[in-house]
UniProtKB/TrEMBL annotation:
Alphabetical list of HAMAP family matching this protein: Ala_tRNA_synth_B
Organism: Kosmotoga arenicorallina S304
Function: Catalyzes the attachment of alanine to tRNA(Ala) in a two-step reaction: alanine is first activated by ATP to form Ala-AMP and then transferred to the acceptor end of tRNA(Ala). Also edits incorrectly charged Ser-tRNA(Ala) and Gly-tRNA(Ala) via its editing domain.
GO process annotations (BP): alanyl-tRNA aminoacylation
Subcellular location: Cytoplasm
Alanyl-transfer RNA synthetases family profile domain: residues covered: 4-708
Full protein name: Alanine--tRNA ligase
Length: 871
């Protein structure tokens, strides 16, 4: 067995299986095209539809080195020799081609002849009921019976990768490390023993079954092979080191961590844990960002944020209080950029995202940690409210708190925290004004059972005749609605688009032989039954009548312009900013469009201009917009943009704008992009951390907007008496002139307020201390404070009180010489005076500000000032 670098091992595996007629494919993304999984957790994930038999394979034999993320054992990362969140999985796959015999024999050939691992060190395990695999190892490969261990389902059964899917028995290859110190029975030790002596490094899965949601197994139409050989684990074996962190895969990162923290690896066991956590999480974070994940508070973004913050906390444990994680991007790219070019291509993005997120978290880390221990020292525990506050105020994920308290006996109310988080989400949904249609009335369900759904034919036409199947008024059935009454109508078919997918519903009118009504809103409360919210404007609308349904064509067309524009905008954002951009929400109406998307920074004016210009270029080309209906699985296999968190039916609409954009979408669109007219961005803003929002207008709205700007420009030209190109220059000049005059006015007011004594000034002594009182009218508060300072300088030693009379309130300040604060407390004096004026306030012993509503009582208070001071 010779020393091999990780690059040599990776390439030798792919070359070996290429020699066995396997097609070598690059790694798929960490974001799987699979709504059941958050991340690609195994090499077989990209091929699940093939294993299921839903898609025919292009190649019968494939080999890959697949990027993977698993976080189920995150608490063990850094503490054990081999746990990682990000790892590479070498694998060879057969889709109905070869099966157990070839898979086992080739695995043995690669391990013993290519890697040259001594046969005497190798053991295998098989599923206890898999006699076929046992016989192949024994008779075909020639391994001694005692070195073939039969194990149960918990050890030698793989899958599915998710709640349902392909699975089957497996066989595993182990290497004997020779370590016997933890084994209670060294004579009979085998892979069945959990002492750690035997290390499993290759798992050959015989995918024969599909598991449904109830756990039932059915045979697949074709037998498949799926193997997983962990590169990090194999590299540790080939390099003769104890842990994966001691391999050439991690050492460049660890060396950089040593330099940043001025420490040495392998010099302190506790510090070593933190170093390993940082090295592991730095890899995971970088690869996740390269594949389009950005920090957020849910889903994949939550996992990314958790890993990043966990790394930052471990850096703090090593004594570092400055942003550092972005500095690990360079050695990572140097080590792995040639294998995974997305790291090189997204290097700048990775650094920017990591730096901004770390800066944001570090601002809160110290303060949050102090607050955490304040609570614990006071209460001895953490309630759900405490956890929610730490999460909401300081960004402390509950898992981070659990880790910080690991090893202690401090109790935390995690269930209470979860309840509060759910309440917050409900409040957010309510605040967003989302319609809640989940509580469907029994009447609607009965209607659906009786009539079925509403047939939507509005893609093809904007008018149709349809039967009124039911009328609903105040959640109960009605026979008719008269002039001025409101209700909801169910038709057998409709041309009115119902609100969904971010697009608002159509509006329009319905006409019957007996009446006319406005259609104000259309929605789908249950299955595919459409409810038309109407108001009768003339006559009577009756159940069972035939009605003419007429969509407001102008508003439908305006909405379609905006919807197609969002598709153009989405495509341009990804081309301009990067593939990390993902749609996070949208609103499409006739007046405007709103598009939320994942991005880590505010857009510059140059970026906004470039995006706007690119969208308008696509509009000017009048690109054709086509719509196709396809099976969902077929659409997923194509390069189609989709929100796979959304629920789609078996059939989906694929909206294509030439070769510019292709998305799954149920909305309405224009025939070609030239119909959109001018696209104008009117705002770009932040929605939340990592999510930006663009609002834009098209068509007639953009013309109205430009007309308004044109009118405003001409008005400014007339007012300023300049040419258009001089408006900005003249405005800036006038603003500067106003600022200078404001300064002069302020100085004059200060001079007047602090001038010589007048009729509204009062002076007296209390116990030998001088008191100076002045009453002024409608003065800025800042000037009153400054005036008190000036008058105190003039007085030298004593107390200054200034009352400021305003129309509906009185404001005053009290200033006391510092050497007199033990005798006269400004805060207490202000408090007593404020009570007399019907208000409140206070402050420091040497200065206080207060006020009240009783303006007319100022003179009376001044006359009785000695009483208020002494009390």
């Amino acid at each position: 067995m010779r020393y091999m670098t990780s690059e040599e091992i990776r390439q030798s595996f792919l070359d070996f299986f290429k020699s066995k007629d396997h097609t070598i494919l690059p790694s798929a993304s960490l974001i799987p095209n699979d709504p059941q999984l958050m991340f690609t957790v195994a090499g077989m994930v990209p091929f699940k539809p093939i294993f299921w038999g839903k898609i025919k394979p292009t190649y019968p034999r494939i080999a890959t080195c697949q990027k993977c993320i698993r976080t189920v054992d995150i608490d063990n990362v850094g503490k054990t020799p081999r746990h990682q969140t990000f790892f590479e999985m070498l694998g060879n796959f057969s889709f109905g081609d070869y099966f157990k015999k070839e898979a086992i024999e080739w695995a043995w050939e690669y391990v013993t002849e290519v890697l040259k691992i001594p046969e005497e060190k190798l053991w295998v395990s098989v599923y206890k009921e898999d006699d076929e695999a046992y016989e192949i190892w024994k008779n075909e490969v020639g391994i001694a019976e005692k070195k073939i261990v039969k194990l149960g389902k918990e050890d030698n059964w793989w899958g599915p990768a998710g709640p349902t899917g392909p699975c089957g028995p497996d066989t595993e290859i182990f290497i004997d490390s020779g370590r016997k110190e933890n084994c209670p029975d060294t004579e009979n030790c085998s892979p069945a023993c959990d002492c750690g002596r035997f290390l499993e490094f290759w798992n050959l899965v015989f995918t024969e079954y599909n598991q449904d949601e109830e756990g039932n197994l059915t045979l697949l139409h074709q037998k498949n092979i799926d193997t997983g050989l962990g590169l990090e684990r194999l590299t540790a074996i080939m390099q003769g080191v104890e842990t994966t962190f001691d391999t050439d895969i991690f050492l460049p990162l660890i060396e950089k961590i040593e330099d940043i923290h001025s420490i040495r690896y392998r010099s302190n066991p506790e510090r070593d844990i933190s170093i390993r956590v940082i090295a592991d999480h730095a890899r995971a974070v970088a690869f996740m960002i390269a594949d389009g994940v950005l920090p957020s508070n849910e889903g994949r973004g939550y996992v990314l944020r958790r890993l990043l913050r966990r790394a930052v906390r471990h850096s703090s444990l090593l004594g570092n209080n400055r942003p550092f994680l972005h500095l690990l991007t360079e050695p990572l790219i140097k080590k792995m950029g040639s294998i995974y070019p997305e790291l090189k291509n997204k290097g700048e993005l990775i650094e920017q995202v990591v730096l901004k997120e770390e800066e944001r978290f570090r601002d809160n880390l110290d303060r949050g940690t102090k607050r955490l221990w304040q609570i614990i020292n006071t209460k001895g525990k953490l309630t759900g409210n405490d956890l929610f506050m730490l999460h909401d105020t300081y960004g402390f994920h509950v898992e981070l708190v659990e880790e910080m308290l690991s090893g202690s006996n401090i109790s935390i109310d995690k269930d209470g925290f979860v309840d509060l988080m759910l309440e917050q989400k409900e409040r957010a949904r309510a605040a967003a004004g989302n319609r809640e249609y989940s509580a469907v009335s029994n009447f609607i369900k009965v209607l659906y059972e009786k009539f079925g759904g509403t047939r939507f034919i509005g893609y093809e036409m904007l008018e149709t005749h349809s039967e009124i199947r039911a009328i609903i008024r105040e959640e109960s059935q009605a026979k008719e609605l008269s002039t001025g009454e409101e209700g909801e109508i169910v038709f057998d078919k409709t041309v009115f688009y119902a609100e969904k997918g971010g697009q608002v519903s159509d509006v329009g009118i319905i006409e019957t032989p007996s009446g006319v009504a406005e259609v104000q809103h259309v929605y789908i409360p249950h299955q595919d039954i459409f409810l038309h919210k109407i108001k009768v404007t003339k006559g009577t609308i009756k159940e069972g009548e035939q009605a003419l349904l007429i969509v407001d064509a102008e508003k439908r067309k305006a909405t379609a312009r905006n919807h197609t524009a969002t598709h153009l905008l989405h495509a341009v954002l990804r081309k301009t900013l990067g593939n990390h951009v993902k749609q996070s929400g949208s609103l499409v109406g006739p007046e405007r469009l709103r598009f939320d998307f994942s991005h880590f920074a505010q857009l510059s004016s140059e970026e906004i201009a470039k995006i706007e210009e690119s969208v308008n270029d696509a509009i000017l080309f009048a690109l054709p917009v086509t719509v196709e209906e396809k099976r969902l699985e077929e659409a997923k296999s194509e390069d189609v943009t989709a929100l796979f968190e959304e629920k789609y039916g078996d059939k989906v609409r694929v909206v294509s704008i030439s070769d510019f954009s292709k998305e799954l979408c149920g909305g309405t669109h224009v025939g070609n992009t030239g119909e959109i007219g001018l696209f104008k961005i009117i705002s770009e803003s932040s929605v939340s951390a990592g999510v930006r929002r663009i609002e834009a207008i098209t068509g007639k709205e953009s013309m109205r907007y430009l007309r308004k700007l044109f009118t405003l420009t001409n008005t400014l030209k007339d007012i300023l008496q300049v040419q258009e190109k001089q408006i900005l220059e003249k405005t800036l000049f006038l603003m500067q002139e106003i600022k200078e005059k404001d300064k002069e006015i302020k100085k004059l007011k200060e001079k007047l307020l602090s001038g010589k004594s007048g009729a509204n000034d009062h002076e007296f002594n209390i116990d030998g201390v001088k008191f100076f009182v002045r009453i002024v009218d409608d003065a800025p508060v800042e000037l009153i404070r400054n005036t008190a300072d000036v008058l105190m300088q003039r007085l030298g030693r004593g107390v200054v009180i200034i009352f400021n009379r305003q129309e509906d309130k009185a404001i005053f300040v009290v200033k006391v010489s510092s050497e007199l604060t033990k005798r006269f407390n400004a805060g207490l004096i202000a408090k007593n005076i404020a009570k007399a004026l019907g208000g409140g306030g206070g402050g420091r012993p040497d200065f206080a500000q207060a006020g009240g509503k009783e303006v007319s009582k100022i003179e009376e208070v001044v006359r009785s000032l000695e009483k208020y001071v002494r009390s």
